[in-house]
Design goal:
Layout: H1 9-21, E1 25-30, H2 33-36, E2 45-51, H3 56-70, E3 75-78, E4 87-93, E5 107-114, H4 117-120, E6 121-122, H5 124-127, E7 131-134, E8 141-142, H6 147-177, H7 181-204, H8 216-219, H9 222-229, H10 238-253
Parallel strand pairs: 2-5, 6-8
Antiparallel strand pairs: 1-2, 1-7, 3-4, 4-5
Helix pairs in contact: 6-7, 6-10, 7-10
């Protein structure tokens, strides 16, 4: 079923208006949960916009100015210009406190990039099927990412997990033993549970091997997602979670056929 984007109709109309008059805005599509699934009343509108190389900053500023002029924008978070080497990103909020969740979310995440093969080729396994708003020249191409590149990235992730295994356990357990629970929790998520999830992703959805703890119910078998949930901080003391998590990591790192 197609997602109901009606609460963002004003944005879709604005995008079509601006794209029709700005020759440097070449491609616009909706991604995020609208494309991958899971769209609901709390979802923001994720927009990808491809621009004529060298004009991306200017297109970003023109569109943002127009949105402020004609829409009920409350505030904007503009990421530093250096965040992306060939692009810009901003979050446009229409509510003072969207996190209160007292009404359906009205927020727009816009990611502007220079038009290039790197950005116009889209793997639907990783990003879902885009909802195209503007692409008169047919520049957006749906195709799988390079399989050799995915395999190499996954192999590196597994190799790093194997090399780091002993050090990771020492870092986590030392912080637990010292009673440094904020540090221990952070280390546990980064070097224990986060690595287990990455190893699971390598097995089940290698094209999203670097998606971290997002989309667990979508990307992993139900029993493995349940097992991850049972290892989240707070499910039990870290003194219990850590050995269980590292034991699972050892299972996942065990060579096939051994």
């Amino acid at each position: 079923m197609a997602p109901d984007l009606s609460r963002y109709d004003d944005w879709l109309d604005l995008l079509r208006e601006v794209a029709a008059t700005d020759p440097d805005l070449r491609v616009v599509w909706v991604g995020g949960s609208a494309a991958t699934g899971g769209w609901d009343e709390w979802s923001d509108l994720d927009l990808d916009l491809l621009c004529t190389p060298g004009t991306t900053d200017a297109v970003h500023d023109r569109l943002l100015d127009r949105a402020r002029e004609v829409l009920d924008v409350d505030h904007v978070w503009e990421l530093p210009a250096a965040t992306w080497l060939d692009g810009r990103q901003c979050f446009v909020n229409h509510q003072r406190r969207p996190g209160a969740l007292t009404e359906p979310t009205r927020a727009v995440d816009m990611h502007f990039s220079d038009l290039s093969d790197r950005h116009r080729f889209l793997d639907v396994r990783r990003h879902g099927t885009p909802i195209v708003v503007h692409d008169p020249d047919g520049l957006l191409v749906l195709r799988h990412d390079d399989e050799a590149g995915i395999e190499a990235a996954c192999a590196e992730a597994v190799d790093q997990a194997r090399q780091r295994r002993a050090t990771a356990e020492w870092l986590v357990n030392r912080a637990v033993a010292r009673g440094q629970l904020p540090e221990a929790t952070d280390l546990y998520l980064r070097f224990a549970l986060g690595i287990v999830v990455r190893l699971l992703r390598v097995q089940h959805c290698p094209w999203r091997h670097d998606f971290g703890l997002r989309y667990l119910r979508t990307d992993l078998p139900a029993e493995e997602a349940d097992r991850v949930y049972a290892l989240l901080p707070g499910a039990a003391p870290l003194t219990e979670l850590s050995p269980r998590c590292f034991a699972w990591m050892d299972e996942l790192l065990e060579p096939a056929g051994s």
